[in-house]
C-alpha cells in the first residue's frame, strides 16, 4: 500500500488478512476479525482514507485474552529467567532502532504529527525498551528481618498476569512503550488495544515483538472502537488495565474495573499551568511556552495551556507570543521545516472549532488565531486569548489543540492560587531567574511533573503521572514495574516447634 505522497504504508505484508487490510494479532498469528468486520484509517493531512483495519468483536477480544492467559499460565514468558526476558527485550530495542524510520512515518500517516517531533520520539522508544530490559534483571523483593524468632522472611515480586494496554492517538508508540515494556520486563502477558485513529503503527511494533522472539500469545493486538475497549476492560481474565486517554474515559474504566477488583494505571487529561514571572528571561519563556503548548499542535496531555504571566511583563509577553504564534509554518508533517501539523482527525478539528465558538460566546479577547486555516488538512491557527477569566471554559477544560489561555497575576501567592485552581495536576512550568522562588514554588504547585525554565522534557528514568483528575499511578522510572507486579510475603520456619498462631496479636 502506497500513499499519494510516495511514502510506503504497510498493509498485508505486516498483517496478512485477506479482504480486511490490517489484521488482529492473536496468539502469534495475524488474522481477520470475526465476520471480516473492518474500519477505515485516515490521513489528516490529505483528508483521505488509505487503508482498512480489522474491527475486533467481543469474541475476538475473548480469543486474544484467552491466548494471553494461556501464555501466562504455562510460563512461556514469566517462566523464563529474567536475564532471558531482558535479552529478548534488548533484541526488540535493536529492531525498533533498525525500523525507526518506518515506525516514524507510519505514525505520521495516522495522526499528522511532525517528523521533527516523531523521529526523536521513536528513537527514545528504543532507549525506553533497553531501560526496562535492564530493570527486568534487577527488580525484585527484599530480605526482611523476621518479626518472630526462628523464621527467615522475605518478599517476592511476581507478575500480575494478563495486562490490557489501551493507548491514545497522539503518541501511539511512545505511550504504548510506557506500558508494554515494564509489563513484559515483569513477566506479564499483554493485550493491546490502540486508538482507532492510530492502529497500524501498533501492529508494526507487535510484528517486531514476534521477530524479536517474544513467544506467541505474550503480545496480542485487538484493533477496534470503544466497544472493543469495553470488552477488554470487562474481561474477567484481565488482571490490570493501563490506560492513557481522556479523563472521562479513564474514570469509566476505573469504575468498571473496580467491580471486579482489577488494577488500573490511568494517565489522563491536563490543563497545565506555566508561571511566567517578571524576572524571567522573556524570550526564553516565550519559546518554552510555545514548545509546551503549540508542539504536537497542542495535542498533548501535558500541554501548558494555562499561561500565567506577572503584571509587569503581561502585555509584552502576550504580544510576543501572539506574533510568534501567527508566524508558525503550517504544512506537510513530513517536511522538516514544518512547524505546525494538522489535528489528528475530523472529530478533533470539530472539537477545537467548537471551543473557538465558546470563546466567542464568552467574549474573550483573541490576539491571534481562533479559526481553521484555509488549506488542505485539519489545520487550525495557533491561538492566543488574553485576560482569560479563571472561570472561563477555555481556562478550565482540556481542549487538546494549540490554544493558549493567558491570565495575569500580581503576587507569588496569587500565581500559586491560580496554578492550583484546577481539577487536574499533570504538569507545570515555572519561569524565573530567582532560584529561591523556584524551589519554593516547585513544592507548592500541585503537579506530577514540574519544570523550571524549560517545559515538555521527559525521560524513562523519572516517573510520569498526575494529581487529581490527571490520573492514578505513575508510568516510567524504576517504580513503574511495581504497577505490574504483586508482592508476596514469605515466612520460612527454620526450626520452631510446630504450633498454631491465632490472632493478629501473636505477631
Characterise the protein shown here.
Helices cover 35% and strands 20% of the residues. With 507 residues, it is an alpha/beta fold. The strands form 5 sheets. Strands 14-15-16-13-12-17-18 form a 7-stranded mixed β-sheet, with helices on both faces. The protein is globular. The chain starts with 23 loop residues before the first strand and ends in a 14-residue tail after the last strand.
Topology:
Layout: E1 24-26, E2 29-31, E3 38-43, E4 48-54, H1 58-73, H2 82-98, H3 100-111, H4 115-136, E5 143-144, E6 151-159, E7 162-166, H5 172-185, E8 189-193, H6 200-212, E9 219-221, H7 226-234, E10 238-244, H8 247-258, E11 263-267, E12 273-276, H9 282-293, E13 306-310, H10 314-326, H11 346-361, E14 365-368, E15 383-386, H12 393-396, E16 403-409, H13 412-419, E17 427-431, H14 435-444, E18 449-452, E19 471-472, E20 485-493
Parallel strand pairs: 7-8, 7-10, 8-9, 10-11, 12-13, 12-17, 13-16, 15-16, 17-18
Antiparallel strand pairs: 1-2, 3-4, 5-6, 6-20, 11-19, 14-15
Give me some keywords for this one:
globular, six-stranded mixed β-sheet, 507 residues
Beta fraction: 15-25%
Would you tell me the structural class of the helices and strands?
A: alpha/beta
* Low-pLDDT segments: 11-20
Distance between the termini: 67 Å
Overall mean pLDDT = 93
What does the overall shape look like?
A: globular
How many DSSP H or I helices?
14
For the biggest β-sheet, the strand order reads 14-15-16-13-12-17-18
Total E-strand runs? 20
Helix content: 25-40%
Radius of gyration: 24 Å
Largest sheet: 7 strands, mixed
Amino acid at each position: 500500500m502506497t500513499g499519494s505522497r510516495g511514502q510506503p504504508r504497510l498493509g498485508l505484508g505486516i498483517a496478512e488478512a485477506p479482504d480486511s487490510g490490517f489484521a488482529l494479532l492473536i496468539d502469534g498469528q495475524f488474522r481477520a476479525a470475526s465476520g471480516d468486520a473492518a474500519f477505515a484509517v485516515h490521513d489528516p493531512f490529505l483528508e483521505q482514507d488509505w487503508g482498512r483495519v480489522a474491527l475486533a468483536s467481543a469474541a475476538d477480544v475473548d480469543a486474544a485474552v484467552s491466548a494471553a492467559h494461556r501464555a501466562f499460565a504455562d510460563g512461556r514468558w514469566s517462566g523464563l529467567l529474567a536475564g532471558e526476558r531482558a535479552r529478548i527485550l534488548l533484541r526488540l530495542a535493536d529492531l525498533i532502532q533498525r525500523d525507526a524510520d518506518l515506525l516514524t512515518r507510519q505514525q505520521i500517516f495516522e495522526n499528522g504529527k511532525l517528523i521533527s517531533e516523531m523521529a526523536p520520539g521513536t528513537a527514545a522508544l528504543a532507549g525506553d525498551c533497553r531501560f526496562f530490559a535492564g530493570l527486568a534483571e534487577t527488580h525484585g523483593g527484599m530480605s526482611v528481618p523476621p518479626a518472630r524468632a526462628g523464621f527467615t522472611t522475605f518478599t517476592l515480586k511476581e507478575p500480575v498476569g494478563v495486562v490490557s494496554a489501551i493507548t491514545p492517538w497522539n503518541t501511539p508508540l511512545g505511550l504504548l512503550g510506557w506500558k508494554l515494556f515494564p509489563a513484559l520486563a515483569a513477566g506479564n502477558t499483554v493485550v493491546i488495544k490502540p486508538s482507532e485513529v492510530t492502529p497500524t503503527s501498533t501492529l508494526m511494533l507487535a510484528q517486531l515483538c514476534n521477530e524479536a522472539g517474544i513467544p506467541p500469545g505474550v503480545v496480542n493486538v485487538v484493533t477496534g472502537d470503544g466497544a472493543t475497549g469495553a470488552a477488554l476492560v470487562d474481561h474477567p481474565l484481565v488482571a490490570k488495565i493501563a490506560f492513557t486517554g481522556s479523563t472521562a474515559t479513564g474514570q469509566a474504566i476505573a469504575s468498571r474495573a473496580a467491580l471486579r477488583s482489577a488494577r488500573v494505571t490511568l494517565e489522563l487529561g491536563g490543563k497545565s499551568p506555566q508561571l511566567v514571572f517578571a524576572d524571567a528571561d522573556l524570550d526564553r519563556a516565550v519559546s518554552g511556552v510555545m514548545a509546551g503548548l503549540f508542539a504536537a499542535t497542542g495535542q498533548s496531555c501535558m500541554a501548558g495551556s494555562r499561561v500565567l504571566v506577572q503584571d509587569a511583563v503581561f502585555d509584552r509577553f502576550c504580544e510576543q507570543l501572539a506574533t510568534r504564534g501567527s508566524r508558525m509554518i503550517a504544512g506537510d508533517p513530513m517536511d522538516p521545516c514544518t512547524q505546525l501539523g494538522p489535528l489528528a482527525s475530523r472529530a478533533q478539528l470539530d472539537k477545537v472549532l467548537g471551543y473557538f465558538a465558546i470563546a466567542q460566546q464568552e467574549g474573550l479577547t483573541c490576539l491571534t488565531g481562533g479559526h481553521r486555516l484555509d488549506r488542505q488538512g485539519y489545520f487550525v491557527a495557533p491561538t492566543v486569548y488574553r485576560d482569560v477569566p479563571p472561570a472561563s471554559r477555555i481556562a478550565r477544560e482540556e481542549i487538546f489543540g494549540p490554544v493558549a489561555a493567558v491570565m495575569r497575576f500580581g503576587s507569588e501567592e496569587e500565581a500559586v492560587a491560580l496554578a492550583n485552581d484546577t481539577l487536574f495536576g499533570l504538569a507545570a512550568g515555572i519561569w524565573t531567574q530567582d532560584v529561591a522562588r523556584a524551589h519554593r514554588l516547585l513544592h507548592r504547585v500541585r503537579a506530577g511533573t514540574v519544570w523550571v525554565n524549560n517545559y515538555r522534557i521527559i525521560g524513562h528514568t523519572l516517573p510520569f503521572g498526575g494529581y487529581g483528575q490527571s490520573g492514578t499511578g505513575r508510568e516510567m522510572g524504576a517504580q513503574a514495574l511495581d504497577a505490574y507486579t504483586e508482592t508476596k510475603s514469605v515466612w520460612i520456619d527454620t526450626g520452631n516447634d510446630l504450633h498454631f498462631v491465632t490472632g493478629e496479636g501473636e505477631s
